[in-house]
Amino acid sequence: DVKVTQSSRYLVKRTGEKVFLECVQDMDHENMFWYRQDPGLGLRLIYFSYDVKMKEKGDIPEGYSVSREKKERFSLILESASTNQTSMYLCASVRSSATGELFFGEGSRLTVL
Amino acid sequence: AQSVTQPDIHITVSEGASLELRCNYSYGATPYLFWYVQSPGQGLQLLLKYFSGDTLVQGIKGFEAEFKRSQSSFNLRKPSVHWSDAAEYFCAVGDNFNKFYFGSGTKLNVKP
Q: Which chain B residues in 52-111 lie under 8 Å from chain A, judged by CB atoms?
């Protein structure tokens, strides 16, 4: 069974803390994505990566960075968490949109106090 | 610019009634179209997808969707809703550059 695994389902952090959200996929997909989901706003793309060590900004990259050192792993980093980054974060992967669909992890709900 | 509109934020239907969730998109070329479902506290699960060919596509859980190019729509339907269908539904468009655009979602409530 194919899988996208997000290491933390729920996190509570304090303002100013550094936060790491990790995502691992076992499908050998080239492309991986980090989305943020907020009520009424749908999914907004933060960053995506189409290959190891390659990354591109999405629609809302401010305050975030990413790391992709290995094909199966894509990390989202909040260098200094702020309360407006309280949200649900979804990781996804796909081989390519021409041949397949996004596979999602179960999400990481982050609360910043 | 590409965009996806789901005009209904909330919909309530009675169990056993039919369902139609609306989705309109803006995209210059032939789109790749998807419907996802999200149960509370969970990630998104693919219901169905359209890439080409027959414009009426069947998905899991008894859902279907019809691609209408002239209306730029990809509405999701189910003839008889079950209580377990209560969830949030997202329509999405994918392009040739590995970008996906999501609608803001429709929350479905099912009355007993």
A: 90, 92, 94-100, 102-105
**Long-range contact list for B46-49, CB < 8 A, 24+ apart?**
B46/A101, B46/A102, B46/A103, B47/B76, B47/B89, B48/B76, B49/A101
Q: What is the pLDDT of residues B63-111, one digit of tens each?
A: 999 999 999 999 999 999 999 999 999 999 987 777 888 999 999 999 9
Sheet containing strand A65-70, edge to edge, reads: A4-6, A19-25, A73-78, A65-70
- Chain A: residue whose CA lies nearest to B103: A42
Closest CA to B91 of B70, B61, B69, B66: B66
Contact A99, A86 (CB under 8 A): no
